[in-house]
Amino acid sequence: MSIRFALLGAGRIGRVHAKAIAANPDATLVAVADPFKEAADAIISRFGGEARTVEEIETAGDIDAVVICTPTDTHADLIEKFARAGKSIFCEKPVDLTIERVRQCLQTVEETDATLMIGFNRRFDPHFRAVRRAIDDGRIGNVEMIQIVSRDPGPPPANYITSSGGIFRDMTIHDFDMARFLLGEEPDTVFATASVLVDPQIGELGDFDSASVTLATASGKHCTISNSRRAAYGYDQRVEVHGSLGSVAAENQRPVSIEVATSAGYERPPLHDFFMTRYTEAYAAEIASFIASVKAGKKPSPSGADGLAALLLAEAALKSVNEGRAVRLEEIGG
Amino acid sequence: MSIRFALLGAGRIGRVHAKAIAANPDATLVAVADPFKEAADAIISRFGGEARTVEEIETAGDIDAVVICTPTDTHADLIEKFARAGKSIFCEKPVDLTIERVRQCLQTVEETDATLMIGFNRRFDPHFRAVRRAIDDGRIGNVEMIQIVSRDPGPPPANYITSSGGIFRDMTIHDFDMARFLLGEEPDTVFATASVLVDPQIGELGDFDSASVTLATASGKHCTISNSRRAAYGYDQRVEVHGSLGSVAAENQRPVSIEVATSAGYERPPLHDFFMTRYTEAYAAEIASFIASVKAGKKPSPSGADGLAALLLAEAALKSVNEGRAVRLEEIGG
Amino acid sequence: MSIRFALLGAGRIGRVHAKAIAANPDATLVAVADPFKEAADAIISRFGGEARTVEEIETAGDIDAVVICTPTDTHADLIEKFARAGKSIFCEKPVDLTIERVRQCLQTVEETDATLMIGFNRRFDPHFRAVRRAIDDGRIGNVEMIQIVSRDPGPPPANYITSSGGIFRDMTIHDFDMARFLLGEEPDTVFATASVLVDPQIGELGDFDSASVTLATASGKHCTISNSRRAAYGYDQRVEVHGSLGSVAAENQRPVSIEVATSAGYERPPLHDFFMTRYTEAYAAEIASFIASVKAGKKPSPSGADGLAALLLAEAALKSVNEGRAVRLEEIGG
Amino acid sequence: MSIRFALLGAGRIGRVHAKAIAANPDATLVAVADPFKEAADAIISRFGGEARTVEEIETAGDIDAVVICTPTDTHADLIEKFARAGKSIFCEKPVDLTIERVRQCLQTVEETDATLMIGFNRRFDPHFRAVRRAIDDGRIGNVEMIQIVSRDPGPPPANYITSSGGIFRDMTIHDFDMARFLLGEEPDTVFATASVLVDPQIGELGDFDSASVTLATASGKHCTISNSRRAAYGYDQRVEVHGSLGSVAAENQRPVSIEVATSAGYERPPLHDFFMTRYTEAYAAEIASFIASVKAGKKPSPSGADGLAALLLAEAALKSVNEGRAVRLEEIGG
After folding, report:
1. What span, in angstroms and rounded, lies between the C-alpha atoms of A91 and A78?
2. Cβ contact (<8 Å) for B191 and D191?
3. Within chain B, which residues score under 70 in pLDDT?
4. Do C72 and C13 touch, CB atoms closer than 8 A?
5. I need a labelling partner for B255 at 20 to 30 A (CA). Which of A173, B57, C31, C34 fits?
6. Residues C95 and C177 in one domain
7. Which of UniProt's keywords are assigned here (chains A, B, C, D) (predicted)?
8. What pLDDT sits at residue A165?
9. Chain C hits for B263, Cβ within 8 Å
10. Contacting residues of A for D262, CB less than 8 Å apart
């Protein structure tokens, strides 16, 4: 049985998923919906399927699952629509930028017993997975302190910032999910510091480009997250977990690993400069995991609840910056 | 225009090329030939095309190029056949295990002005390419000394050894090609030492499993190659080029790059354990290069002459081991 | 002219300094004072000098400088005594565990115009110095975010904890000084989280063994510090500075740098397991710097004010943990 | 009991040993002999002892051991002189540049039952020792293939070349000793290639500046050595041993280990640029080992026989270059 897919949104992340679907022997791309016809056609000509409207997909008998890659403000509506239509749903993060709307949407998912997976792709990166596996295998004993460094190669354009929900909901949210993936215990307190060091325009839009966040759990585990919207040397994505018996760290990735030694020293090339090349394997494994869950009739992971949990941490971080204090998750309904 | 391909030989390396062809927007897999029908069908069901005989492909009007992945002893015949049929030819190394037959075959290629590329995939590995680029960019000055370490994870089965032509023609041949790719000058002398340290059965079959080779050029450049049929830690593939202004080295590759630190020390996972996973990107880039050459009507590289040159070095190495002395290429007609 | 030294306190850190003095061509060890005669004699027999009392040293005409390595609660008194006696003073950190006493003592130093250097040895580590130099040379642009990881191999005994002043005054204080050394701007806010994850006894004594601290400056620079009293893999001492043009990081140090590759992976030995072997070069360079300052008649660095500044950060960190909020330095008189 | 030393030769290597003797609690520097009085005095003023002639030292009752750091052509005479005088002898390599004279000298050592250690300092480097220990501990199984890379930062002056005995006797000799230290079996065959790539003047003097050597043992183990008189990035000193269960490698050493990441890539500083800073610890451990042997009344290692064995390999290498063939040690009396 091949899972029959419809892709909603034919932008660059949509294309990544279309490619993963086409390459997966257990899946077929049947339909692509995008108001911008050329975008849909470009994907169709390369990876198969046909152009359809969202409404056609909603009622189609030959579609098992949808992949939602549309703008963020349409996610919750589409999840609800396809939950009611009985389709399995993979949705890019976030469900929505407001807690209330996310809760409402997840309520619908629960009532319809829909299958929903949220696109926290980093959980599927082979290096981060191996970190988790090292923990699960007991190699570092009890997890105590985590350090996540997550820096973009360069700041996004102003119009992206405007609709992004801010650095915590847009960028740190991946790190919040990673923290939850690795801590083995829910954070209950968040402290965050944020500032504008990279691009004054980001500050003018009310956002930050540099942030340091500390999460703490009830038993006293810590996780610190360091974010910057700029890293001259590429896409900096590191995780290190310190435990009672040792540590495990995922190293940065570069497209080419050579070393040139001259009188100036030993030089290796910069890192990947783009999240899509950095996370190529993660995106493919993510969709493969979704397909496997759908085939097996199991609820996929990360779930809608994982999406909500990360958003709550983002909310708490923002509150912490504004109030200069540690914020407990329970204060914001977490 | 899409280049229309026929695949000859549906074994594991054939499958690698079929995948690369299917994924390449400028190519189509039209036909697959293999006496073992199930193998051909498995590839067809996944990557397209239909089953045909070699003869059908030879005379087909809808085939532009063939990829030869059949057993070594059929390579020369097939090259000649398809050269005469006017197809562009990609052939896995080696053309043949005997110098004489290779020369004869290349003569036919020349007479028919055929397009022939030999599958020295490592030239297309992004890391080795970057080494070459660093040299071409003048970053290390004049090339002086090269060191190649090339070790398999484990020895092949006895029946493979029997038909392989021996370690120099089968394994070191890749390193000879790499040496030529990087030296910037043809080696004119070969000295080789070889022994049986890994598997006595290999010795009983008249072959070696461990070899150290030194190549020298007229101007005094050296290249040393270290081969072993066994490396407990994986597929060890390193190249280092020392020049007047510095050095450049390609590092080993591992599927997962984490580091676990415990009281025992800092541990990173083993290397890739299989040439296909190690050289995934190289295989795709290799076929892409062939396709681009065919589209552009240019002669591809590495050529049949490159195949011959590497084989001559293998021949010289074997003679050197037998006679305990440095062998000049000209002694064997190089 | 050779600087004539008296050593106060013949414990293990005293021995380190005695060795550095003896090996320095510009210094001579003239006297050693320690109530435990065997300890003083052991140093004298190896590095020269004679046993004297503190009082004899105070009035001696043949002593230019003293090195104070006595218990912490004697530091301030001894600094004052030797400031009045006109001796140059090198004192191990901290000046005292209370802010008030430190201010009082530094007042005396100022009134007597005494020469005082505080033993923040890490500033003299060649690797951390090189980090600072890379910053000063403009290689990473403007400093934005710093990350310090500082972990002991194992927790100290309970009686050490009791007199240590707690993790922030005893352990993090080095990191606070390092942060000030590298930030290029004074931190004005401190947020700290601390817990007991390593040794419950430390918690029973009212202290913590695991801490995460974030410092922020007026212009928005951040520094995060991660401390643990236990690292199974050795003495973990890392600093990374992120700037507008790149980053610079000091790597961990190990006594032996080999790598063993087996089927289990690639393994390097653990780090140094003791601060004295880790910072051997730093201790020697520290005393050399003090000697050079004394010879040149200049005020040495780090100064008493640096000692106070680090202690204020420790105080603020403790207050932050207790109150669950960011604490401004000015709140505690900083 | 403190071993009482005389130092013969107050040049830069003599100074290194004087420092090691002065710092060793089991040794005392009693006398220094050097025709150049200022050199001797400089050492005496720093590390103790008094100036004496070689003859005075020969007959002195207060000297237990001599350290010979004089020009190479005096080594054999001095060894014989002090062997007869009953002093323990540490002599810098080589004993002599000719095999015959070495044999003669060692004959005297044997007849007088003298204690003689040859200065192959690299055996005492902590990293190379750890490589040996990993082998001895069985971590890599049976040793099969060794690779030694040994490159100087830059070529020596012409007058040094003239008296050096050529690259094999002067530079490769250290690598020959390292090969013997690690192989666990004597090499019986040598093949060498050498050329002039760095400095034409070296060629005019009849020497080489670039060499590749392969050693082989009776059981088929190989060791390749790659030498160059120039490495733009510093003093390149690597050893890698490949065995049946894995490999062990000693990494290069740099004085400062930081990494600067910018848009150009990740850069670490160059290596040590001088053998004395690279091998500081090795020199100290070497003399400590000699002192320990003398104190214990044991024959030290490496011995005079080790000095001869390395010289025989150098001789064989030179013969191999000249004759373009593998040379068996037995051909030159090995």
Report:
1. 9
2. yes
3. none
4. no
5. A173
6. no
7. Oxidoreductase
8. 94
9. 232-233, 270
10. 232-233
Disruptive mutation site among A150, A190, A214, A266 for chain C (greatest number of C CBs within 10 Å): A214
Cβ-Cβ contacts under 8 Å for B25 (sequence gap 6 or more): A46, B2
Q: What residues of C are in contact with residue D250 (Cβ under 8 Å)?
A: 257-258
B294 found inside a domain? no
- C-alpha dihedral sign at A25, A27, A31, A37: negative
Once rounded to an integer, what is the mean pLDDT over residues D189-197?
98
pLDDT for the residue numbered D4: 98
**Which neighbouring-strand residues pair with D262?**
C246, D265
Residue A320's closest chain C neighbor by CA?
A: C325
Has residue C110 been placed in a domain? yes
Q: Pseudo-torsion of CA C93, C98, C100, C106, nearest 10°? A: -10
B204 with B168, same domain: the answer is yes
CATH code of the domain in which B43 resides: 3.40.50.720
Asked if the model's pLDDT at residue D334 lies above 90, the reply is no
* Domain edge (last residue) among C114, C139, C171: C114
Q: D64 is in which domain, residue-wise? A: 3-114
Residues B83 and B111: their CA atoms lie apart, in Å, by 9
Q: Is residue A101 part of a domain?
A: yes
Residues 6 or more apart from D283 whose CB is under 8 A from it?
Answer: D16, D17, D20, D121, D124, D276
Assess whether D152 and D184 both reside in one domain: yes
Average pLDDT over residues D281-289: 96
pLDDT reported for residue C23:
87
Phi then psi for residue A276, to 5 deg, are: -75, -35
Chain B residue with minimum CA distance to A267: B248
Between CA C174 and CA D231 the distance in angstroms is: 38
> For residue B333, what pLDDT is reported?
83
Contacts of C25 in chain D (CB under 8 A): 46
Residue given tokens 């995008």 in the structure block: A34
- Residues A101, A64 share a domain: yes
Tens-place pLDDT, residues B108-125: 999 999 999 999 999 999
**Residue C328: strand, helix, or coil:** strand
Q: Which residue of B has its CA nearest to D248?
A: B233
pLDDT for residue D1: 73
Whether B12 contacts chain D with CB within 8 A: no
* Percent share of chain D, pLDDT over 70: 100
> How is residue D285 written in tokens?
């451990």
Supply the ipTM of this predicted assembly: 0.95
Domain count along chain B: 2
Q: What is the chain C residue with the closest CA to D256?
A: C127
> C240 to chain A, minimum CA–CA distance in Å?
11
B303 assigned to some structural domain: no
Q: Residue C200, Cβ neighbours under 10 Å: how many?
A: 10
Q: Summarize pLDDT for D250-280 with one digit per residue, the tens.
A: 999 999 999 999 999 999 999 999 999 999 9
H or E, element range at A332? none
Residue D240 banded pLDDT, cuts 50, 70, 90: very high
CATH code of the domain covering residue A193: 3.30.360.10
> Is B134 in contact with A258 (Cβ distance < 8 A)?
yes
Q: Work out the percent of chain A whose per-residue pLDDT is above 90.
A: 96
C-beta separation of D125 from D282 below 8 A: yes
Residue range A49-60: mean pLDDT, rounded? 97
Give the residue on C whose Cα is nearest the Cα of D244: C262
Share the mean pLDDT of chain A.
97
* pLDDT tens per residue, range C239-278: 999 999 999 999 999 999 999 999 999 999 999 999 999 9
Please identify, among C64, C96, C114, the residue that sits at the C-terminal boundary of a domain.
C114
Question: B237 touching D, CB under 8 A?
Answer: no
Same domain (yes/no): A13, A135: no
* B257 and C CB contact within 8 Å: no
Q: Which chains touch C (3 or more CB pairs under 8 A)?
A: A, B, D
